[in-house]
Write a structure and sequence with these properties.
Layout (H helix, E strand, L loop, with lengths): L3 E9 L11 H9 L2 E4 L2 H10 L5 E4 L5 H13 L4 E4 L12 H10 L1 E6 L4 H9 L6 E6 L4 H11 L5 E6 L4 H12 L3 E6 L7 E6 H5 L8 E5 L11 H13 L4 H12 L3 H17 L1
Parallel strand pairs: 1-4, 1-5, 2-3, 2-4, 6-7
Antiparallel strand pairs: 7-10, 8-9, 8-10
Bound molecules: S-adenosylmethionine (SAM).
Length: 282
Protein backbone atom coordinates (compact mmCIF):
# COMPACT_ATOMS: atom_id res chain seq x y z
CA UNK A 1 0.00 0.00 0.00
CA UNK A 2 1.34 3.45 -0.84
CA UNK A 3 2.09 5.83 1.99
CA UNK A 4 0.46 9.23 1.83
CA UNK A 5 3.46 11.42 2.61
CA UNK A 6 1.54 14.68 3.04
CA UNK A 7 1.04 14.61 6.77
CA UNK A 8 1.87 12.70 9.92
CA UNK A 9 0.00 11.55 12.99
CA UNK A 10 2.40 11.64 15.96
CA UNK A 11 1.57 9.34 18.87
CA UNK A 12 3.19 11.15 21.76
CA UNK A 13 3.76 9.69 25.23
CA UNK A 14 3.45 12.25 28.04
CA UNK A 15 4.53 12.13 31.72
CA UNK A 16 2.75 9.81 34.17
CA UNK A 17 3.51 12.19 37.03
CA UNK A 18 6.88 13.88 36.93
CA UNK A 19 6.86 16.58 34.25
CA UNK A 20 10.66 16.50 34.00
CA UNK A 21 10.30 13.27 32.07
CA UNK A 22 9.27 15.21 28.96
CA UNK A 23 11.92 14.90 26.26
CA UNK A 24 13.16 17.64 23.95
CA UNK A 25 11.68 15.75 21.03
CA UNK A 26 8.27 15.62 22.74
CA UNK A 27 8.32 19.41 23.18
CA UNK A 28 9.48 19.96 19.57
CA UNK A 29 6.69 17.80 18.18
CA UNK A 30 3.99 19.35 20.41
CA UNK A 31 5.18 22.83 19.42
CA UNK A 32 5.38 22.12 15.71
CA UNK A 33 2.24 20.14 14.86
CA UNK A 34 -0.85 22.06 13.73
CA UNK A 35 -3.16 20.42 16.24
CA UNK A 36 -2.88 18.36 19.42
CA UNK A 37 -5.70 15.85 19.89
CA UNK A 38 -6.13 15.33 23.64
CA UNK A 39 -8.04 12.83 25.72
CA UNK A 40 -9.04 15.71 28.02
CA UNK A 41 -8.15 19.22 26.91
CA UNK A 42 -8.38 20.67 30.45
CA UNK A 43 -5.95 18.11 31.71
CA UNK A 44 -3.51 18.54 28.82
CA UNK A 45 -3.68 22.31 29.16
CA UNK A 46 -1.74 21.95 32.46
CA UNK A 47 1.07 20.13 30.66
CA UNK A 48 1.12 22.48 27.67
CA UNK A 49 0.98 25.63 29.84
CA UNK A 50 3.84 24.32 31.96
CA UNK A 51 6.00 24.13 28.82
CA UNK A 52 4.57 27.29 27.28
CA UNK A 53 3.13 25.45 24.30
CA UNK A 54 0.25 27.19 22.51
CA UNK A 55 -0.64 24.68 19.81
CA UNK A 56 -4.38 24.36 19.13
CA UNK A 57 -6.04 21.51 21.02
CA UNK A 58 -9.03 19.41 20.05
CA UNK A 59 -10.62 16.64 22.06
CA UNK A 60 -10.38 12.97 21.19
CA UNK A 61 -11.85 10.58 23.74
CA UNK A 62 -13.62 7.24 23.93
CA UNK A 63 -17.08 8.81 23.56
CA UNK A 64 -16.40 10.64 20.30
CA UNK A 65 -13.71 8.46 18.71
CA UNK A 66 -15.44 7.99 15.35
CA UNK A 67 -16.53 11.58 14.98
CA UNK A 68 -13.25 13.14 15.99
CA UNK A 69 -11.24 10.61 13.95
CA UNK A 70 -13.04 12.00 10.89
CA UNK A 71 -11.96 15.51 11.89
CA UNK A 72 -8.35 14.42 12.34
CA UNK A 73 -8.31 12.63 8.96
CA UNK A 74 -9.60 15.87 7.39
CA UNK A 75 -6.70 17.78 8.97
CA UNK A 76 -4.19 15.21 7.68
CA UNK A 77 -5.78 15.41 4.21
CA UNK A 78 -5.25 19.13 4.43
CA UNK A 79 -1.51 18.49 4.96
CA UNK A 80 -1.56 19.34 8.66
CA UNK A 81 0.42 17.27 11.19
CA UNK A 82 -1.47 16.13 14.27
CA UNK A 83 -0.19 14.86 17.65
CA UNK A 84 -2.34 12.52 19.73
CA UNK A 85 -1.76 12.57 23.50
CA UNK A 86 -3.61 11.04 26.44
CA UNK A 87 -3.83 12.23 30.05
CA UNK A 88 -0.68 10.26 30.91
CA UNK A 89 1.75 7.86 29.28
CA UNK A 90 1.14 6.43 25.83
CA UNK A 91 -2.07 7.04 23.92
CA UNK A 92 -3.78 3.72 23.08
CA UNK A 93 -2.38 2.00 26.19
CA UNK A 94 -5.59 1.72 28.24
CA UNK A 95 -6.38 5.04 26.59
CA UNK A 96 -8.14 6.19 23.39
CA UNK A 97 -6.57 6.17 19.91
CA UNK A 98 -6.98 2.64 18.51
CA UNK A 99 -9.79 3.61 16.15
CA UNK A 100 -7.91 6.66 14.93
CA UNK A 101 -4.68 4.78 14.27
CA UNK A 102 -6.53 2.22 12.15
CA UNK A 103 -8.29 4.94 10.17
CA UNK A 104 -4.98 6.71 9.58
CA UNK A 105 -3.30 3.46 8.49
CA UNK A 106 -6.20 2.75 6.12
CA UNK A 107 -5.85 6.21 4.56
CA UNK A 108 -2.09 5.71 4.12
CA UNK A 109 -0.85 8.61 6.24
CA UNK A 110 2.39 8.36 8.15
CA UNK A 111 2.39 7.45 11.86
CA UNK A 112 5.32 8.30 14.12
CA UNK A 113 5.64 7.38 17.80
CA UNK A 114 7.38 9.75 20.17
CA UNK A 115 8.72 7.68 23.09
CA UNK A 116 8.14 8.49 26.72
CA UNK A 117 6.89 7.20 30.08
CA UNK A 118 4.56 4.24 30.54
CA UNK A 119 3.26 3.14 33.94
CA UNK A 120 3.29 -0.60 33.13
CA UNK A 121 6.96 -0.74 32.16
CA UNK A 122 8.08 1.50 35.02
CA UNK A 123 6.37 -0.87 37.46
CA UNK A 124 7.54 -4.06 35.76
CA UNK A 125 11.25 -3.27 35.72
CA UNK A 126 11.31 -2.43 39.43
CA UNK A 127 8.96 -5.23 40.53
CA UNK A 128 11.61 -7.91 40.93
CA UNK A 129 9.40 -10.28 38.91
CA UNK A 130 10.43 -11.99 35.68
CA UNK A 131 10.84 -9.46 32.86
CA UNK A 132 11.85 -11.86 30.06
CA UNK A 133 8.26 -12.55 29.07
CA UNK A 134 5.22 -10.72 30.31
CA UNK A 135 1.63 -9.88 29.46
CA UNK A 136 0.29 -6.37 29.75
CA UNK A 137 -3.36 -7.00 30.65
CA UNK A 138 -4.36 -3.48 31.69
CA UNK A 139 -7.68 -3.08 33.54
CA UNK A 140 -9.77 -6.09 34.49
CA UNK A 141 -13.48 -5.64 33.85
CA UNK A 142 -15.09 -3.30 36.37
CA UNK A 143 -17.87 -5.87 37.05
CA UNK A 144 -16.62 -8.28 39.72
CA UNK A 145 -18.10 -11.42 38.08
CA UNK A 146 -16.53 -10.56 34.69
CA UNK A 147 -13.19 -9.73 36.32
CA UNK A 148 -13.16 -13.14 38.02
CA UNK A 149 -13.83 -14.86 34.67
CA UNK A 150 -10.95 -12.93 33.11
CA UNK A 151 -8.67 -13.95 35.99
CA UNK A 152 -9.71 -17.58 35.58
CA UNK A 153 -8.70 -17.34 31.92
CA UNK A 154 -5.28 -16.03 32.99
CA UNK A 155 -4.72 -18.56 35.77
CA UNK A 156 -2.44 -20.89 33.79
CA UNK A 157 -0.59 -18.11 31.91
CA UNK A 158 3.08 -18.87 32.61
CA UNK A 159 4.52 -15.34 32.42
CA UNK A 160 4.38 -12.18 34.51
CA UNK A 161 1.06 -10.30 34.22
CA UNK A 162 0.67 -6.53 34.50
CA UNK A 163 -2.65 -5.05 35.63
CA UNK A 164 -3.79 -1.47 35.95
CA UNK A 165 -6.24 -0.90 38.77
CA UNK A 166 -8.17 1.94 40.35
CA UNK A 167 -7.63 2.61 44.08
CA UNK A 168 -11.29 2.03 44.98
CA UNK A 169 -11.19 -1.48 43.50
CA UNK A 170 -7.68 -2.64 44.42
CA UNK A 171 -8.54 -4.40 47.71
CA UNK A 172 -11.29 -6.48 46.07
CA UNK A 173 -9.08 -7.24 43.07
CA UNK A 174 -6.20 -8.44 45.24
CA UNK A 175 -8.54 -10.69 47.23
CA UNK A 176 -10.10 -12.12 44.06
CA UNK A 177 -6.69 -12.73 42.39
CA UNK A 178 -5.46 -14.45 45.55
CA UNK A 179 -8.51 -16.75 45.45
CA UNK A 180 -8.15 -17.54 41.74
CA UNK A 181 -4.33 -17.62 41.32
CA UNK A 182 -3.29 -18.85 44.76
CA UNK A 183 -0.51 -17.19 46.71
CA UNK A 184 1.92 -15.97 44.06
CA UNK A 185 4.62 -13.34 44.21
CA UNK A 186 3.30 -9.88 43.37
CA UNK A 187 4.25 -6.22 43.44
CA UNK A 188 2.03 -3.18 43.79
CA UNK A 189 3.63 -0.02 42.39
CA UNK A 190 2.02 3.24 43.44
CA UNK A 191 2.35 6.87 42.35
CA UNK A 192 5.21 6.18 39.94
CA UNK A 193 7.60 9.05 39.19
CA UNK A 194 5.77 11.16 41.82
CA UNK A 195 6.81 12.34 45.27
CA UNK A 196 5.21 9.40 47.08
CA UNK A 197 6.29 6.64 44.71
CA UNK A 198 6.11 3.30 46.55
CA UNK A 199 6.56 -0.40 45.82
CA UNK A 200 5.01 -3.16 47.92
CA UNK A 201 6.70 -6.46 47.09
CA UNK A 202 5.61 -9.80 48.53
CA UNK A 203 2.92 -12.33 47.79
CA UNK A 204 -0.74 -11.74 46.95
CA UNK A 205 -1.67 -12.62 50.53
CA UNK A 206 0.83 -10.03 51.82
CA UNK A 207 -0.66 -7.39 49.53
CA UNK A 208 -4.19 -8.33 50.68
CA UNK A 209 -3.24 -7.00 54.13
CA UNK A 210 -2.67 -3.46 52.79
CA UNK A 211 -5.44 -1.02 53.63
CA UNK A 212 -6.55 2.41 52.35
CA UNK A 213 -4.41 2.32 49.23
CA UNK A 214 -4.61 5.59 47.38
CA UNK A 215 -3.27 7.11 44.18
CA UNK A 216 -2.51 5.53 40.83
CA UNK A 217 -1.29 1.97 40.86
CA UNK A 218 0.01 -0.93 38.81
CA UNK A 219 -0.21 -4.52 40.02
CA UNK A 220 2.32 -7.07 38.77
CA UNK A 221 1.71 -10.77 39.41
CA UNK A 222 4.02 -13.72 38.88
CA UNK A 223 2.93 -16.16 36.15
CA UNK A 224 1.75 -19.71 36.70
CA UNK A 225 4.40 -22.31 37.43
CA UNK A 226 3.90 -26.06 37.69
CA UNK A 227 3.81 -27.35 41.26
CA UNK A 228 6.89 -29.43 42.09
CA UNK A 229 6.83 -32.86 40.52
CA UNK A 230 5.36 -35.47 42.91
CA UNK A 231 8.14 -37.43 44.57
CA UNK A 232 8.02 -41.14 43.75
CA UNK A 233 8.43 -42.92 47.10
CA UNK A 234 9.58 -46.10 45.34
CA UNK A 235 12.65 -44.17 44.14
CA UNK A 236 13.43 -42.98 47.65
CA UNK A 237 13.12 -46.56 49.03
CA UNK A 238 15.56 -47.80 46.40
CA UNK A 239 18.04 -45.10 47.32
CA UNK A 240 17.70 -45.91 51.04
CA UNK A 241 18.27 -49.62 50.31
CA UNK A 242 21.38 -48.82 48.29
CA UNK A 243 22.82 -46.81 51.18
CA UNK A 244 21.89 -49.56 53.68
CA UNK A 245 23.54 -52.15 51.43
CA UNK A 246 26.69 -50.04 51.54
CA UNK A 247 26.65 -50.32 55.32
CA UNK A 248 24.79 -47.18 56.42
CA UNK A 249 22.32 -47.47 59.31
CA UNK A 250 18.65 -47.33 58.25
CA UNK A 251 17.93 -44.10 60.14
CA UNK A 252 20.95 -42.33 58.67
CA UNK A 253 20.08 -43.50 55.16
CA UNK A 254 16.52 -42.20 55.56
CA UNK A 255 17.81 -38.83 56.86
CA UNK A 256 20.11 -38.45 53.89
CA UNK A 257 17.45 -39.28 51.29
CA UNK A 258 14.82 -37.14 53.08
CA UNK A 259 17.20 -34.16 52.99
CA UNK A 260 17.89 -34.75 49.27
CA UNK A 261 14.16 -34.64 48.40
CA UNK A 262 13.34 -31.97 51.00
CA UNK A 263 10.75 -34.15 52.75
CA UNK A 264 10.15 -35.01 56.40
CA UNK A 265 12.50 -37.78 57.61
CA UNK A 266 9.85 -39.10 60.04
CA UNK A 267 7.27 -39.43 57.29
CA UNK A 268 9.81 -41.13 55.02
CA UNK A 269 11.05 -43.42 57.81
CA UNK A 270 7.49 -44.59 58.66
CA UNK A 271 6.68 -45.13 54.98
CA UNK A 272 9.94 -47.05 54.53
CA UNK A 273 9.23 -49.32 57.55
CA UNK A 274 5.67 -49.94 56.37
CA UNK A 275 6.95 -50.88 52.91
CA UNK A 276 9.54 -53.27 54.37
CA UNK A 277 6.91 -54.85 56.65
CA UNK A 278 4.68 -55.37 53.65
CA UNK A 279 7.51 -56.93 51.62
CA UNK A 280 8.33 -59.29 54.48
CA UNK A 281 4.66 -60.40 54.71
CA UNK A 282 4.50 -60.98 50.90
N1 LIG B 1 -1.64 5.46 29.01
C1 LIG B 1 -1.12 5.19 30.32
C2 LIG B 1 0.23 4.48 30.22
O1 LIG B 1 0.82 4.44 29.15
O2 LIG B 1 0.71 3.99 31.24
C3 LIG B 1 -2.14 4.48 31.16
C4 LIG B 1 -3.43 5.21 31.30
S1 LIG B 1 -4.64 4.37 32.21
C5 LIG B 1 -6.09 5.25 31.81
C6 LIG B 1 -4.39 4.94 33.84
C7 LIG B 1 -3.84 3.83 34.74
O3 LIG B 1 -2.44 3.74 34.53
C8 LIG B 1 -3.99 4.15 36.22
O4 LIG B 1 -5.24 3.74 36.72
C9 LIG B 1 -2.87 3.32 36.81
O5 LIG B 1 -3.24 1.97 36.88
C10 LIG B 1 -1.78 3.49 35.73
N2 LIG B 1 -0.94 4.66 36.05
C11 LIG B 1 -0.88 5.82 35.37
N3 LIG B 1 0.02 6.65 35.96
C12 LIG B 1 0.52 6.00 37.02
C13 LIG B 1 1.46 6.32 38.03
N4 LIG B 1 2.08 7.49 38.07
N5 LIG B 1 1.75 5.39 38.97
C14 LIG B 1 1.14 4.18 38.96
N6 LIG B 1 0.24 3.84 38.03
C15 LIG B 1 -0.07 4.72 37.08
Amino acid sequence: MSLNSKATLFLVATPIGNLNEVSKRTLDVLNNVSVIACEDTRNSLKLLSHFDIHTRMISYHNFNEEESAKGIIALLENGEDVALISDAGYPLISDPGYHLVNEVIAKGFKIVTVSGPNAALNALVASGLNTNHYLFYGFLNSKASHARKEAEGLKMFPYTIIFYEAPHRIEKTLKMLHEVFGDRKACLARELTKLHEEYYRGTLSDLCKLKDLKGEMVLIVEGYSKPDEQIDLEDTFEEINELVDKGMRKKEAVSEVAAKYDISKNVLYNAYLKENDQNEKD
